[in-house]
């Protein structure tokens, strides 16, 4: 997307959304809170619901013609040219357990393509934003992925190996055994680690659009590659299996195993 007069405004507004989400989630973080269970058996709290409600209100007020897709309150205007995709608390289990590795994910799409993606880690005061054609920035400083090109040299991260099932669990295990170091936990945080060169490869399964859309410009603008397990670019209707890597060579080595 070419830079337009309104481009900086959208970037600034993304930052405002992240700030508002941080203020809301930290109000509840490490305080007694009721835990509810959604139909898919995943946990949810008032912090998730209130944060998304706040973000949706801000978007509707600022850009009333834009569509919104959120984890907690559904979708409206998915067919519109401009769309925001929100995950108010990515890592609700960590949030509930008092772990600071929960984040807010914000993506802005124009004509079905992700133009801006942000990862905000409120409890750690860390923030990534990827802007198409302009780079990825960590706390205001441009960041980039590592130069790792071989699985044997790579640091691999995933939220949990328990999330892989059936034959996919074996494929993940094969890749994991080939890597130099493995670290688990973190949800969206591990993609920030990849964007800054502290991790080299991330593999996950069963994500939803609000879990991964914001990650696309963060990884790509940092110089990395992020696709599904067939090597296809990620979109709203992808199957939720995500492979992100620092270099094409590293990505291809993992892809050959995942595609078997």
Low-pLDDT residue intervals, each spanning 5 or more residues = 1-5
Average pLDDT metric: 95
Distance between the termini: 35 Å
Strand order of the largest sheet: 4-3-5-6-7-8-9-10
Can you walk through the features of this model?
There is one protein chain. This protein is an alpha+beta fold. The chain is 33% helix and 27% strand. The protein contains eight helices and 15 strands. It has helices at residues 7-28, 46-62, 92-96, 166-178, 189-195, 209-212, 215-221, 248-258; strands at 35-37, 43-45, 67-70, 74-76, 82-90, 103-110, 113-121, 126-131, 135-138, 141-142, 155-158, 181-184, 201-204, 225-227, 242-245. Strands 4-3-5-6-7-8-9-10 form an eight-stranded mixed beta sheet, sandwiched between helices. α1 (7-28) runs antiparallel to α2 and α5 packs parallel to α7. The chain is globular.
SSE layout:
Elements: H1 7-28, E1 35-37, E2 43-45, H2 46-62, E3 67-70, E4 74-76, E5 82-90, H3 92-96, E6 103-110, E7 113-121, E8 126-131, E9 135-138, E10 141-142, E11 155-158, H4 166-178, E12 181-184, H5 189-195, E13 201-204, H6 209-212, H7 215-221, E14 225-227, E15 242-245, H8 248-258
Parallel strand pairs: 3-5, 11-12, 11-13
Antiparallel strand pairs: 1-2, 3-4, 5-6, 6-7, 7-8, 8-9, 9-10, 13-15, 14-15
Descriptive terms for the model:
260 residues; alpha+beta; disordered N terminus; single chain; 8 helices; eight-stranded mixed beta sheet; 33% helix
Task: Describe what is shown at a glance.
The chain is an alpha+beta fold and 260 residues long. It has helices at residues 7-28, 46-62, 92-96, 166-178, 189-195, 209-212, 215-221, 248-258, and strands at 35-37, 43-45, 67-70, 74-76, 82-90, 103-110, 113-121, 126-131, 135-138, 141-142, 155-158, 181-184, 201-204, 225-227, 242-245.
């Amino acid at each position: 997307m070419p830079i337009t007069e309104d481009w900086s405004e959208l970037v600034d507004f993304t930052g405002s959304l992240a700030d508002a989400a941080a203020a809301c989630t930290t109000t509840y973080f490490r305080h007694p809170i009721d835990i509810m269970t959604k139909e898919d058996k995943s946990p949810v709290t008032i912090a998730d619901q209130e944060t998304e409600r706040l973000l949706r209100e801000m978007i509707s007020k600022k850009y009333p013609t834009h569509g919104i897709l959120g984890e907690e309150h559904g979708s409206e205007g998915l067919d519109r040219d401009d769309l925001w995709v929100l995950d108010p608390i990515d890592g609700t289990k960590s949030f509930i357990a008092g772990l600071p590795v929960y984040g807010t994910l914000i993506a802005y799409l124009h004509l079905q393509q992700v133009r801006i993606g942000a990862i905000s880690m409120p409890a750690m005061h860390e923030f990534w934003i990827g802007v198409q054609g302009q780079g990825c920035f960590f706390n205001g400083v441009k960041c980039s992925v590592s130069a790792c090109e071989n699985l044997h040299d790579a640091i691999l991260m995933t939220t949990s190996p328990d999330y892989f099932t059936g034959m996919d669990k074996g494929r993940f295990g094969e890749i994991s055994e080939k890597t130099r170091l493995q670290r688990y936990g973190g949800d969206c945080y591990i993609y920030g680690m990849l964007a800054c060169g502290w991790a080299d490869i991330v593999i996950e399964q069963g994500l939803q659009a609000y879990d991964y859309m914001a990650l696309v410009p963060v990884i790509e603008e940092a110089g990395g590659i992020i696709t599904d397990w067939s090597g296809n670019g990620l979109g709203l209707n992808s199957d939720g299996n995500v492979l992100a890597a620092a270099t094409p060579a590293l990505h291809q080595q993992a892809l050959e195993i995942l595609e078997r």
